[in-house]
């Protein structure tokens, strides 16, 4: 203690250590953001399970009224929308509220436009989410697992579409869903930064070729049905009837040749480079066909299920073959990105399955 010139004693100096040693207690937050996110994901998963189970009553005879199945379809529509918005980094709450409002109007009024709109939204976002929910995989077993997860999600979308039972023209409905799903997935993939750089000439050729094959299949099938000769149309019909009578279903060319192989190839390619998302984008062709398979009220559930099964098996085989023959990208930057000391053990990091991709 020191004494001033006026004879008064100065106050003792507080040591710095005394001030720093005291930290006032701070109450921890009741819920962390991590816990809230986990609760939200769990809630979406439980809602998907419940909606899937209720919507399944539209294709399985359990004695439930049709309106209950539509409640399940409405829940699935909201879950699909929230899932796509969450994975793409969008406003999941806003889009979920809008789709929930549309679904509520469809349930309460049963207006044709509302039912058709809700059905289109359900099929579109269900097909897109089936692709977005997959994870990159380097091993065959992991690729098959992710492939099965995508098919399961697309199956739930198909059941939801059947539950809506909207008054639609199947061919127009399918084209509308396919175009909407393509536009959505391409916008998301472009936003992820998976540009065309790094694909090389071979990769771009394959992607453009896939788009050309898809266009040819769609245009040719419509052209043959409308303007084809009676002999050709009868030959196609007889082949379809023979396959249906023999094995119970008919594999779909768009799924076998484009959608499912592209999905398998893309899941594997993403384990090394993000350009694999472009292959996965073409996988939405297969999931869109699945999602719209039961849109027609006269659809035979057994026939559609067997056709999807055969298409899935053949598409998986073709996709694994393409995966085996794929030597990797031919561009210089792509080779640098894909070069690893142990390619089999390396898997490119991506956010978790239920987290935003960007």
Automatic annotation (TrEMBL):
Would the keyword Chaperone be found if you checked this record's keyword annotation? no
Coiled-coil segments: none
- This protein's superkingdom? Bacteria
Which terms are listed as keywords in the entry?
Answer: Membrane, Transmembrane, Transmembrane helix
List where the protein spans the membrane: 38-62, 68-85, 92-109, 115-135, 147-167, 173-192, 204-223, 250-269, 276-295, 301-322
Would you tell me the protein name for this molecule?
A: Uncharacterized protein
Per the UniProt record, the source organism is Mumia zhuanghuii
Q: What is the lineage of its organism?
A: Bacteria, Bacillati, Actinomycetota, Actinomycetes, Propionibacteriales
């Amino acid at each position: 203690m020191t004494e001033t010139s006026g004879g008064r004693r100065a106050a003792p100096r507080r040591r710095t250590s005394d001030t720093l040693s005291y930290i006032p207690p701070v109450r921890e937050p009741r819920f962390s953001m991590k816990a809230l996110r986990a609760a939200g994901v769990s809630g979406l998963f439980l809602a998907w399970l419940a909606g899937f189970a209720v919507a399944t009553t539209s294709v399985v005879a359990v004695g439930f009224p049709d309106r209950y199945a539509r409640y399940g379809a409405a829940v699935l529509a909201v879950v699909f929308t929230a899932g796509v918005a969450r994975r793409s980094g969008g406003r999941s709450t806003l889009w979920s509220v809008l789709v929930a409002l549309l679904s509520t109007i469809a349930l309460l009024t049963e207006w044709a436009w509302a039912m058709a709109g809700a059905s289109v939204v359900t099929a579109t976002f269900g097909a897109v989410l089936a692709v977005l929910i997959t994870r990159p995989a380097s091993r065959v077993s992991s690729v098959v697992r992710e492939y099965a997860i995508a098919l399961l999600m697309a199956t739930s979308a198909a059941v939801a579409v059947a539950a809506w039972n909207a008054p639609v023209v199947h061919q127009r409905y399918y084209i509308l869903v396919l175009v909407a799903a393509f536009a959505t997935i391409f916008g998301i993939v472009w936003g992820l930064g998976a540009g065309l750089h790094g694909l090389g000439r071979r990769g771009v050729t394959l992607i453009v070729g896939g788009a050309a094959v898809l266009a040819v299949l769609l245009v040719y099938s419509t052209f043959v049905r409308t303007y084809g000769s009676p002999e050709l149309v009868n030959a196609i019909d007889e082949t379809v009837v023979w396959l249906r009578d023999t094995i119970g279903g008919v594999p779909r060319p768009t799924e076998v040749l484009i959608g499912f192989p592209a999905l398998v190839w893309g899941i594997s390619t993403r384990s090394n480079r993000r350009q694999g998302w472009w292959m996965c984008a073409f996988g939405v062709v297969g999931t869109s066909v699945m999602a719209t398979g039961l849109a027609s009220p006269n659809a035979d559930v057994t026939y559609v299920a067997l056709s999807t099964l055969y298409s899935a098996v053949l598409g998986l085989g073709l996709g694994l073959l393409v995966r085996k023959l794929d030597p990797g990208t031919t561009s210089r930057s792509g080779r640098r990105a894909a070069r690893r000391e142990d390619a089999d053990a390396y898997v490119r990091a991506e956010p978790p399955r239920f987290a935003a991709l960007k």
